[in-house]
Amino acid sequence: MNLRKYVLCLAIATAALATLLASMPAAAQSNADRLIWSTIAGVPADIILEDVVMVGNDRAWVVGRSYDANGGGSAYRLTLVNGRWQVEQAGIFRAGLYDVAALDGERIWVVGEQGLIVQRDASGWREVPAPSDTIQLHAIQMLGDGSAGWAGGSEYGKPVMLAYRDGVWQRAPIETPFDGMAVSDLHLSGNGGWAVGSAIWRLENGNWKYEAPLRPCGEEYGCAGGLAGVRAIDGERAWAVGSWVGICAACSSNPYIVQRSADGWRNSFPRGFSGVIPEPPQYPDTSYLGAVYFSDADNGIAVGNRFYPGTAELFALRYRNGSWSYELIKPRSTASLTSVYFADPTRGLVVGAEGTLLSYGYGEQAPGGENPARPVADPKLPGVRYFAETAHTLRGTFLRYWENNGGLERFGYPLTEEFAEVNSADGKTYTVQYFERARFEYHPEYAGTQYEVLLGLLGNWVTEGRRGEQPFQPVADPRIPTGRYFPETGHTLAPEFLNYWQRNGGLPIYGYPISEPFYEVNAADGQRYLVQYFERNRFEYHPEYAGTPYEVLLGLLGNEYLQAQGWR
């Protein structure tokens, strides 16, 4: 409330305050609606995502590897646009990737199998020599301005640490009391740092000292454990998570959380997780923790998987002000979770196997769940236009584009809300919205230009199985004065459609012609019309409307697409 208005007009201010208080439950509910886990589309299911790092709350990098041992690695750039995460494949590499470190939104480092170390800056990707191509690198952290850093992994059953100094990666000392050891993760904060895996190491004076064995059972022998993730709070405090299994024929895996204070490491749940993780209806109960992240000393989260007869789930253990609590992320999923990163206590990302990419705190990433065409109520918000005819909204960039480029006549009514969808033409994920006659795609890489919004290639989609038909065969230039020929696709633009194409947006709106004009029965009304297909739409000639704006109409390809997906 504005204090000056309060002083000058107490009655008005009091009324405004009452209105504000009355609206608080709805506002709180709106905020609560965003505090959910939601799936982000855009990564193929044959990719194991291994790590995620956020740069602020609106950008992130994700890396992973193919299930195929020879499939190499991939890096994906994530950008938050209008509340939706856009996924772009930003790099493909010769070997699988396991970890990523970001200095800012453009400068990152990635590491992986076969000694792969790659640096990225504004000029692109550049592979940096490693001491050996037999090192499997699973962790990296760059320090300060990026002039120093650490990377860890294993080589022939022994832990490996690499230090980055003076532009070169070199081996650094790490204590190895026994064989069969590996580094899975590392993290430094302030003047302290730890690496974890089959043991725990601490950084001291440039050397990695073996600090603690893993004894999840509180015994020397009797079970075996491994730590998958570590997060340093400061020079004395840290958290690490993983799992342990008893040394027996039918023992199941159990979650494992250890905490470090000035007194050293201790098991946070020496008697198990009873009272924190719900009891399963039947055993065996197998659980894993794959990653941990603390945004500050009082707010942390560990993520993992749980399996028991008839059920598989992804879950989180959330740490707030001294205690851990259980939280279901996703039921009926067997994809193991590998990394978590939170920009702040209420917004984060989680990745895992099977191309799993999840957000928290950003609301539903696909409105209406699996059906983006599900009707919505009028939100009655400034700057949002609601269409009762189809029960959908238009807002922001898409609303401006719709209004400035023909609106209802050209595109029809909106048939969905905005949602994230993978474009089959390039494999990238875009924020899209479907209309009766078009699909809008938001392209942040062209922000501020006329190409910020592009129309989807629905003409290509609807004719995908028809390219062998005669009208779709390329032709030679007929050199007709009243027409136009496009050598890019080998097709003419019919005189009946040329003026409309030129006056109503041309190439950016409709794309190139991909057929010759021909007669076709319209499935919507059963009538036969002269039509021509373009990359982004279908033109229909209506001589009964000659001389009116309806002489040429666009095909209802948006409607056809949604019906083909079973969404209408």
What does it look like?
There is one protein chain. With 568 residues, the protein is mainly β. It has three domains: 244 residues, Kelch-type beta propeller (Neuraminidase), CATH 2.120.10; 73 residues, no CATH class; 95 residues, no CATH class. The strands form eleven sheets. Strands 1-28-27-26 form a four-stranded antiparallel beta sheet, with no helix packed on it. A four-stranded antiparallel beta sheet has the order 2-3-4-5, with no helix packed on it. It has a four-stranded antiparallel beta sheet with strand order 6-7-8-9, with no helix packed on it. The longest helix has 25 residues. The protein starts with a helix and ends with a helix.
Going across the major beta sheet, what is the strand order? 1-28-27-26
What is the name of the CATH superfamily of the largest domain? Kelch-type beta propeller
Terminus-to-terminus distance: 45 Å
- Beta content: 35-45%
Question: Percent range for helical residues?
Answer: 10-25%
* Integer average pLDDT: 87
Number of structural domains: 3
User: Any low-confidence stretches, pLDDT <50, length ≥5?
Assistant: 1-29
Find the count of extended strands (DSSP E, 2+ residues): 40
Query: What structural class do helix, strand and pairing data support?
Result: mainly beta
Main CATH class of the largest domain: Mainly Beta
Rg (C-alpha, Å): 29 Å
Provide the CATH architecture of the largest domain: 6 Propeller
